[in-house]
């Protein structure tokens, strides 16, 4: 089984119980808080997260600091499970939608977050280039060296100006890339 589907399945298994969902939130809290600081997420931000999974811990933690968080996932079952947890946590500023990152209209967001497993990143970025506002900030998790062949690494991304933070250290990712939508290089071949 590929690591993408393994981690998605693991989230679904953990999501069966609301307590394990809360454990998941605690496991990733430090890394997400670090990304929140680096991205300067604040109460004016409308955030889009592409690929939230059954336990959308990134979106749930970010919702404490942002105005609104929209989480999309192409997997209908993951969206339904995530909706249940968000409701149980009594979070009111998170919206969950079944949609692909390659099809999303990103015109209404100040910051867009792309977790490690959201793929294909080049097509997703191409869609963001076409729909997001020029100064919308894009935040992308990057794989650890040993997962460089599994996920798109930063030198494959069609981006001309970016900064990389190394403040996070999780099992599969240890870097976060920051750029603006206007710095995505459009590629007609990906449309
Ligand atoms: C990105 S991870 C989960 C993220 C993690 N729970 C978090 O909060 O950071 C896995 C999920 O991403 C979804 N996904 C991967 N690529 C996607 C895409 N292009 N569009 C929408 N969802 C995607 C998968 O369906 C899976 O449920």
Note down, in words, how this protein is organized.
- With 191 residues, this protein is an alpha/beta fold.
- It has a single domain, classed as Vaccinia Virus protein VP39 (Rossmann fold, 3-Layer(aba) Sandwich).
- The protein is 33% helix and 20% strand.
- The protein is built from five helices and seven strands.
- It has a seven-stranded mixed sheet.
- The model has no long low-confidence stretch (mean pLDDT 92).
- It binds S-adenosylmethionine.
Structure ligands? S-adenosylmethionine
Radius of gyration: 15 Å
Strand content: 15-25%
User: Largest beta sheet: what is the strand line-up?
Assistant: 3-2-1-4-5-7-6
Number of helices: 5
Q: What does the main sheet amount to?
A: 7 strands, mixed
Q: SSE order in H/E notation? A: HHEHEHEEHEEE
Low-confidence stretches are: none
- And the CATH topology? Rossmann fold
CATH class category label: Alpha Beta
How does CATH name the architecture? 3-Layer(aba) Sandwich
What is the total number of structural domains?
1
Average pLDDT over all residues = 92
The amount of helix comes to 25-40%
